[in-house]
Amino acid sequence: MKSIIAILAIVLLLLQYRVWFGDGSYIEHQALQANIDELSERNAELASINALLASEVEAIRSGGQPLEAIARRELGMIKPGETLVLIITEREFQHEPR
């Protein structure tokens, strides 16, 4: 009887080892779940950025002021006769590559 209990205990330990450390183990599952959570957060951030860009594209397609504002802000474009004045903060100046 003692030998049967000992064999069952060994089988139980082997099964527990697989549950905790084998392929598809609890630890591996937890790591994958953490990765899924991180990627879900990143996906939500990218979705909000995508929605913002989509609204910006829609504003540009409808014409008018946003296209001109974007060209001025991001490309530094100016109209003939205008003078471009860039205001660079000290922080931006320190991060500029030379």
TrEMBL record:
GO terms for cellular component: cell division site; cell septum; plasma membrane. The keyword Membrane applies. It is a single-pass type II membrane protein. Keywords: Cell cycle, Cell division, Cell inner membrane, Cell membrane, Membrane, Transmembrane, Transmembrane helix. Its main location: membrane. It is found in: Cell inner membrane. It holds the Pfam family DivIC. Part of a complex composed of FtsB, FtsL and FtsQ. Belongs to the FtsB family. PANTHER family: CELL DIVISION PROTEIN FTSB (PTHR37485:SF1). Essential cell division protein. May link together the upstream cell division proteins, which are predominantly cytoplasmic, with the downstream cell division proteins, which are predominantly periplasmic. This is Cell division protein FtsB. It comes from Umboniibacter marinipuniceus.
